[in-house]
Inverse folding.
């Protein structure tokens, strides 16, 4: 924790922090500008708006925008007596003590939609890389080979992409895949069939049906107790021999031990993972030794545009609440503003 002591000249002022590992010099000026634009009270300059790489604590801090992997824990909350709002600068909020915030009736917001485009692009890029077997081609050349037939690339157009979940990101993946001429199927029980069809996806009734029919399966559902290890040994056994798996959702959706067995046996041709169950992974994490696998460091969400969007949305939420309004994107089940 970073203890914040107020300078003498600021003893009457309240403070707002953006907490992030970002290094870009434009982050704080843009966060401050977004805060000022959204503030509807009498004077936005009454608040000091600052930046920190670690979660600050101490009196006088009324608003925190917090971006993963930085955390907001019970210990932090105990040392933030004046906190009025926590704005999570991401769609997910498993890095924040949501129960602790709710216990103190502190509202929490998040930033859904800020990186949907990036995640969809990343998932499609991974699916295409697996079908074209780019990772094997790269390794083949670096090992001294030069045979196109040794790589076993497949055609993207006409391949079947199975999408698990048709929320905002899954819907964008469906549209992109359809644009590439892929056959798109989707298991999304909460999505009406006509909506799935409008996205270019053919709905299927069960996950088992999707797994058996797909050349590549891509995961776009949240991690919940019901979806933990959704892709386990039984699910992987249902996939087509030679199929591939993409996970840009959450690491806990996939049973790593079962995935290793499916890759080691040759049942799956490859996998592409942007997320792991432990991040960053320790040197002995099982995923790091998986064969025929592309692993990226949870970067599917990231572009300059998406990073700034998440911070600006968080700034607007804090400014709106401090100005007396109701912020957008309050997390369901958390404290209600004005309740």
């Amino acid at each position: 924790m970073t203890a914040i002591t107020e300078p003498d000249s600021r003893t009457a002022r309240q403070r707002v922090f953006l907490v992030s590992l970002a290094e870009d010099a434009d982050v704080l000026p843009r966060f401050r500008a977004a805060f000022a634009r959204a503030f509807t009270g009498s004077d936005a300059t009454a608040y000091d708006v600052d930046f920190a790489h670690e979660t600050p604590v101490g009196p006088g801090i009324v608003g925190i925008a917090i971006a993963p992997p930085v955390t907001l824990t019970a210990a932090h909350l105990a040392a933030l007596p004046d906190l009025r709002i926590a704005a999570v600068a991401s769609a997910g909020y498993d890095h924040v003590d949501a129960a602790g915030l709710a216990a103190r009736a502190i509202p929490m917001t998040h930033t859904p939609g800020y990186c949907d485009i990036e995640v969809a692009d990343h998932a499609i890029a991974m699916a295409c890389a697996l079908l074209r077997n780019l990772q094997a081609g790269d390794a083949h050349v670096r090992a001294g080979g030069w045979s196109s037939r040794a790589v076993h690339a497949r055609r993207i157009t006409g391949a079947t992409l199975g999408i698990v979940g048709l929320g905002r990101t899954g819907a964008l993946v469906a549209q992109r895949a359809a644009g590439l001429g892929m056959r798109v199927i989707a298991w999304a029980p909460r999505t009406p069939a006509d909506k799935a069809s409008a996205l270019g996806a053919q709905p299927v009734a069960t996950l088992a049906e999707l797994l058996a029919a797909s050349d590549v399966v891509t995961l776009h559902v949240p991690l919940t107790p019901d979806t933990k290890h959704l892709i386990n040994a039984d699910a992987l056994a249902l996939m087509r021999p030679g199929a591939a798996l993409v996970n840009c959702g959450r690491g806990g959706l996939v049973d790593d031990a079962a995935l290793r067995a499916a890759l080691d046996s040759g049942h799956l041709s490859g996998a592409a993972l942007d997320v792991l169950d432990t991040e960053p992974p320790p040197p002995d994490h099982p995923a790091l030794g998986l064969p025929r696998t592309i692993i990226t460091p949870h970067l599917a969400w990231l572009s300059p545009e998406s990073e700034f969007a998440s911070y600006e949305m968080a700034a607007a939420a804090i400014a709106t609440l401090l100005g007396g309004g109701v912020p957008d994107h309050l997390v369901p089940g958390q404290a209600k503003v004005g309740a």
Residues 118 and 301 are 5 Å apart (CA to CA).
